[in-house]
Amino acid sequence: MLTNAELRRGLRTPTATVYSASAVISHPIVPLYRHRPLGHVRRWRHPPVYRPLVDLSTMEERHVIITYRLDRATILELCAQLEADLMSAIRHPTGIPPQVQVLSVLHFLASGSFQTTVAIASGMSQPIFSNVLSRVLSALLKHMQSYIVFPQVEDLPTVKGDFYALGHIPNIIGAIDGTHVALIPSCRSEQVYRNRESYHSMNVQMVCLADQYISHVNAKFPDSVHDAYILWNSSIPYVMGQLQRHCVWLLALQQQVPFLQEDGPDGGAVAAVEPVDSEDEEAEEEDIDNRNSVILQYFQ
């Protein structure tokens, strides 16, 4: 009987005999270990250590805002909220820290650059950054409802007061407009995303409050879809219909439009848009200029 040491050295290859009813078959036993020369010293592999190239503490506040479009306090608060979700996905204690994951994704979203470029600047490879991107975006979607909230009934007096203090316009609870978000579409639907300026984008509808907080986002439609179609296929008409008895308005670029309750074809509540007619043409033009100056603060 050979010992394990003799098998590791490969001094000889023994044979085993297998008895069967028909014949006797002999086959060699393959050693379980590869041959190593005598005196060989095995070197243990050290675990990889991630050395981050991004350090928020060493950056100036102006540089932080330019790079990530957020200030330092907001980024640290966001990292603290996403830390639990990002730490659960780290399999190794020397993995990428949650703060580096958040900073790399914010840089990618703020710059619109390629994944490879942002990955190199963050100290990781492109495949790793691709996993980090989907991980951070999924964590952000989980907390989205905590930040993007349309004003409720109890919030209407405060929201109206903020807009009145800003532009002296009564009963306003939001400024609504669409914005173009550029993207690279697939070849099968390239013509759907082409806009009037000959580049591809999404037509995103947004509603902002007086303190520049976003209260509604509708990012379902390409740029070839009209703004009115996006409005009527969002939740805004239904929500404004529920609030009609509170005399609330949304501020648009061209005119101030109230939402009135009507019966839709399916018997449900639908919001109808009715423009406001003014007898004094000069006063109406002045009101439009005031409204445009207010809403352009959010969407320029």
From TrEMBL:
One of its GO terms (cellular component) is cytoplasm. It is found in: Cytoplasm; Nucleus. It comes from the Eukaryota. Residues 176-236 form the DDE Tnp4 domain. Residues 264-292 are annotated as: Disordered. Keywords: Cytoplasm, Hydrolase, Metal-binding, Nuclease, Nucleus. It holds the Pfam family DDE_Tnp_4. Residues 276-288 have a biased composition (Acidic residues). GO terms for molecular function: hydrolase activity; metal ion binding; nuclease activity. Its cofactor is a divalent metal cation. InterPro entries: HARBI1-like, HARBI1_animal, HARBI1_dom. Belongs to the HARBI1 family. Transposase-derived protein that may have nuclease activity. Does not have transposase activity. This is Putative nuclease HARBI1. It comes from Pleurodeles waltl. The lineage of its organism: Eukaryota, Metazoa, Chordata, Craniata, Vertebrata.
